[in-house]
Each structure stands twice: as C-alpha cells, then as structure tokens.
Amino acid sequence: MHLAFLTPEYPHEVTSPAAGIGTSIKNMAVALIEAGVKVSVFVYGQKEETIFLEGGIKFHLLKSHSFKFGGWFLNRKIIQKYLNKHILADKIDAIEAPDWTGITAFMQLKCPLVIRMNGSDAYFCRLDGRRQKRKNFWFEKTALKSADYLLSVSEFTANQTAEIFNLKKPIEIIPNSVDVEKFKPSQIAFVQNRILYFGSIIRKKGLLELAQIFNEVNAKNPTAELIIAGRDVVDNKTGKSTKNLMLEILSDPAQKQTHWLGMLAYEEIQKQIALANVVVLPSFAEALPMTWLEAMAMEKALVTSDIGWAKEVMVDGKTGFTENPKNISVYADKILQLLQNPTLAKEMGGAARARVKQKFSTEVVTKRNVEFYDRIIQDKM
Q: In which band, very low, low, confident or very high, does the pLDDT at 381 lie, cut at 50, 70 and 90?
C-alpha cells in the first residue's frame, strides 16, 4: 500500500511553520511507515521546490507560482499535473488532503481522493461567528463534493461540515492520534500553582476569557502563575496583538504572575507540560485538538472548554473539567479546585492518559486508518 498526503504544512526544518494539521499528518505518516505502508508527502505553498527521502517518507515540496489572473485555478492545475505524474510513477494507491481552503477543488486525480476534515474555513467561521468569503466557501464545497471519500477527526466536525455544505456522502470518523511513548508522564516534578496554556495566542482559542479567568484565580490564589507558550496573533476584530489585548484585561497583580514564553520547540513544550500543575485550554474553535491529547497523554488534569468536540475527548469530572470559558467565575473555580487538591489532579491526570491510550494512541488510530485505506483500495479494484 502506498498512501500520499497533500498538505499546506508539515513540521520540518526546511518547510514553512506548521500547526495542528501538519503535526497530525506527521504522526500518521511516521506510524504508517512503521506499519509497513509506503508514504509520500506533498507540501504545497513552499518557497523552494525539491524532493527528498527522510525516515522512509518521500517528501515533495511544491513552490507557489504567481499569475496576473486566475492564480487560484492555475496553481491547482500545476499541483494536479505534478500529483498525477507521481501517482503513476510511484504507484500511489490513494491521496489524502485537508478540507481547509479546498485545495483539491477542480483537480482530477488518477487515484482515489480522501478529504479529512480537520476543520474547513467555513467550519471555523461558523464557530467564530464570522462571515466567510464566498470564494473560499465555493472552493471548499467543490472539493468536498468531488472527493471520493470523506473522513473527519470528530463526529462534531463531521456533522457541522455536512450541514454547512449539504453533504450527503457517508463520513468516516477517525480521530487524530498522539504517540503515548513520546508524550508520557515525566520524572520532572510539577511546580505547585503553575497553570499552563500552550497554543496560538488568538481570540478563538479563548485567550481573552483566559485573562479574565486568571484575574479571578489570582485574586483567590496570589501565588498562582500563568505560563503562556505560543505565537502571538494579530486579532482579526481589532487589528491589535492578542497578547496586548490580554495585557489590557489582566489586573496588575495578575500581570506580574503571567509569563510569556513565545513559540517553543516540541521538546520544550513537553517540558512545560511536565512542569504544569494544571493545563488550561479554553478554546471556542477546534476540530479535535492535538494540544488536548498531548497534555492528557502526559497525565495532566485539564480544564478545557465544553463545546462540541470536547465531549469526544474529555470526560467532565474524570479526565479534568470541561466548562464554557465565558462562565468566568465557574471556570476559575475549577482551576482552583485542581490547584488546591493535588490528589484530585493526579487522579484526573491518570484517567486522562488511560483515555488517550484507549481511544487516541497512535497504535489504535493507525490500525483504523490502515483498515479504512485497505477498504477503499479494494473498492477501486
């Protein structure tokens, strides 16, 4: 079996910066190689065009081209031609692409095309309450309608996407995975009263609410500290830095107990998770977040949002707490409960890791992916 992934991002030193989609593809690509599956990864929108082999994976970096008119169409056709050349030459059995921006709209490929829903622009616009550009909606709808098969990382994302685009095709649910041998409990002792948020510093991740929440935590527990690791993003409503918006909300005492680490390497993120007493992830917009799985796999009690996908990942009161981040005082109280009760935090962390091993471990999810692709390749014959 030879599978390929078409993606705008992949975490590698020679590619552009990557986020959740890239991380989930890398996890799956590495696991598939270990399971004896051949894997190619086509990363489009890169500065340079090259091919190289690493860790058994064949990488193709595809350069964007500039056109005076119709670049959106012509670039897709260039990618299509390149993919079809390698589908035939390398005997690729199926290609998987993300739903984001509908990159495969208007492409005709010489093998089955699978689109995995990690959250389209239309999906996130709905969750954010924003209006989507008509062109982006058209691209995403066209891509989803023309795909041979559809996957989704969560049932919530599948249902929302089907409703948005009026999809009638069946959608297979296979979640993202995490390597539980890489993300595992650390021997590093946690720092009492340390709260960690890691991820993009952006409104849709609940960071403005987190500033209000931490004000209340700080008022009741002045020794609590908030660690924020991630890239600051310009706020789409105000045009200001999200970090600056948070600083405007944080009280003077809370500001003194807030520490900004910026973007960190993967190994450093693991260290910060290990040092945390409690991990807080109050996001309003996700499909199935890697950050949640990574923290749970490291036996950390979480306080997360309670929206849609959350019920497919967390078990409220068992693996941590889920709460609407707009309920500022209630959310703050749940953080305080875990800070004040190390035994409860430890129990919830243990339950969180057990759940990840059962449902989201690389071993479990890779098996489901291989079975799915075996099925569709048989369908093609």
A: low
Within its chain, how far is the Cα of 209 from the centroid?
21
Please state, in angstroms and rounded to a whole number, the distance separating the CA atoms of residues 166 and 316. Answer: 32
Residues 6+ apart with CB under 8 A from 140: 99, 100, 101, 102, 105, 120, 121, 122, 165
Rg (the chain; Cα; Å) = 21
Q: Which residue has the tokens 């650390």?
A: 186
| Helices vs strands, H then E, count in the chain | 14, 14
The torsion defined by the Cα of 124, 126, 129 and 132, in degrees rounded to 10, comes to: 80
* Close Cβ partners of 4 (under 8 Å, ≥ 6 residues apart): 39, 40, 41, 42, 83, 86, 87, 92, 94, 95, 96
Dump pLDDT digits (tens) for 188-231: 899 999 999 999 999 999 999 999 999 999 999 999 999 999 99
381 vs 376: CA distance, rounded Å: 9
- Angle among Cα 254, 255, 259 to the nearest 5 degrees reads 110
Taking the C-alpha atoms of residue 212 and residue 218, their distance in angstroms, rounded to an integer, is: 10
H or E element at residue 82: helix 71-89
> Exposed, middle or buried, 131 (CB in 10 Å: 0-12/13-18/19+)?
exposed
For residue 66 the two structure tokens come to 């500039």
pLDDT of residue 324: 97
Q: How far apart are CA 185 and CA 309, in angstroms?
A: 25
- Cα–Cα nearest to 249, from 205, 200, 203, 211: 211
Confidence of residue 12 (pLDDT cuts 50, 70, 90): confident
**Dist CA 94 CA 110 (whole Å):** 9
Q: Which SS3 state, helix, strand or coil, does residue 38 take?
A: strand
Dmax of the chain from CA atoms?
Answer: 66
Contact 194, 227 (CB under 8 A): yes
Closest CA to 46 of 15, 76, 77, 13: 15
Between β-strands 258-262 and 194-198, what pairing exists: parallel, antiparallel or unpaired? unpaired
